[in-house]
Amino acid sequence: MKKTILFFLLFSIGISYSYSQDLPNLKHVKLNKRSNYKGTDALVLKVTAYLFATPIDKKNVSRTEAGQFLIKWMNGTPDHTFLLEDKETEFFNTDSDLMLMYMAGFTKFVLENPTIKEQKVLVLGALQLVLPYLDKQASKKTWSAILWQLNDANKKGQLEEYLYK
């Protein structure tokens, strides 16, 4: 009897954990006019959390939908401006999934730190979110040599020096 109760308890915890990584229902969110963007920041943070909680997988339809929603939101929100400059995005140009994660990290950092406006601080914050996530991914075949160098600099605590000196 105790084993059965323990089994159901562990099963319930497992189910709860798996639902915590579920993508919010984005099909009902219309982003076709400015007023639709009001109050969506919390939803966008859930989308970025989902992207960071799931491994990169081109076959994952939910992940693709989350990425498409994030890009559409970033391009249309009147409340935030996202400057993705060549100097910072060149590291991820080899793969659209890598670029999506940089954009997710940038968005997450901007939304969680609304008082920070300096581009350099925003970029460093985004990279400090993205690089550890990318480093844990199984496949690094699409990484460019400069992305490897950027990741090494981050691991050594020299990210700012690598980027800006």
Task: Describe what you observe in this structure.
The structure is a single chain. The chain is mostly helical. It has eight helices and no strands. It has helices spanning 2-20, 41-53, 61-76, 86-89, 96-112, 119-135, 145-155, 159-164. Helix 2 runs antiparallel to helix 3, helix 3 (61-76) packs across helix 5 (96-112) and helix 6 (119-135) packs across helix 7.
Low-confidence runs (pLDDT<50, min 5 residues)?
2-20
State the end-to-end distance.
Answer: 65 Å
* Strand element count: 0
Write down the overall mean pLDDT. Answer: 87
Give me the strand/helix succession: HHHHHHHH
> Major sheet: size, sense and barrel closure?
none
**Global outline:** globular
Q: What is the percent of helical residues?
A: 55-70%
Class per helix and strand makeup: mainly alpha
Report the β-strand fraction as a percent range: under 5%
Rg, rounded, reads: 18 Å
Number of distinct helices: 8
Short description:
The protein is mostly helical. The protein has helices spanning 2-20, 41-53, 61-76, 86-89, 96-112, 119-135, 145-155, 159-164.
Give a quick set of tags describing it.
about 160 residues; mainly alpha; 8 helices; globular; disordered N terminus
Layout of SSEs?
Elements: H1 2-20, H2 41-53, H3 61-76, H4 86-89, H5 96-112, H6 119-135, H7 145-155, H8 159-164
